[in-house]
Amino acid sequence: MTTVILMGPPGAGKGTHAELLAGRLGVPVISTGDIFRAQVAEGTDLGRTAQRYLDAGEYVPDEVTNAMVRERLAAADCRPGFLLDGYPRTLEQAAVLDEVLGGQGRGLVAAVILRVDQEALVARLLRRAEIEHRSDDTEDVIRRRLQVYGDQTVPLINLYDERGLLREVDGSGEIHEVRQRVLNVAFDLTPAE
Ligand code: ADP
């Protein structure tokens, strides 16, 4: 069973590389950001709750996010494992993930982190804003998202580092370059047959 989390600040390329990594590992991608955006688009209760946090660049409250993830990870397609993109982002979420995995009799295999420096991130996100028109890709909201990441998610890096699970990937440069680095990590994480 392969249970991996993909971490990194907004704009690091998690969404771009998640499918590739998950495909190599033979597990589905669970992206909390994508789930929230889909709920917003469908106009569900969860979507309505999430929308104001997304638009402000704030994290959706832990109790809402944790309930959603618990349900998603219980689905049949997650039995062989999963790649979590964008979860956990707070220490409380990390504790819930430990509990869910413990309940399933498994642990995390790795925490992969994409590293990109701050100014490059802002530039990438502003470029994406021109193409995708995401409501949270304005400069003010981007800066807020980076700040929230620094305050709430960076502590998780230490947590996984202390557990010996951290795999750092240089996320700078062209997509094909990062792609190769992600593939190298996937290779390392794939058990020999
Ligand atoms: P990014 O990593 O660029 O911020 P995402 O698509 O992963 O983009 O997330 C978009 C937004 O969805 C976040 O700013 C936040 O509001 C919400 N979100 C996603 N994952 C979580 C999470 N684990 N906890 C709380 N909020 C989340």
Order of helices and strands: EHEHHHEHEHHEH
Structural shape: globular
CATH class: Alpha Beta
Spatial ordering of strands, largest sheet: 2-3-1-4-5
Q: Which kinds of small molecule does this entry bind, naming each only once? A: adenosine-5'-diphosphate
Helix content: 55-70%
Structural class: alpha/beta
Major sheet size, sense and barrel closure: 5 strands, parallel
Can you describe what's shown?
The chain is an alpha/beta fold. The chain has helices at residues 14-25, 32-42, 45-56, 62-73, 91-103, 118-132, 139-162, 175-189; strands at residues 2-7, 29-31, 81-85, 110-115, 166-170. The protein is built from 8 helices and 5 strands. The protein has a 5-stranded parallel β-sheet with strand order 2-3-1-4-5. α1 (14-25) packs parallel to α8, α2 (32-42) packs across α3 (45-56) and α6 crosses α7. The chain is globular, with a radius of gyration of 16 Å. Adenosine-5'-diphosphate binds next to α2 and α3.
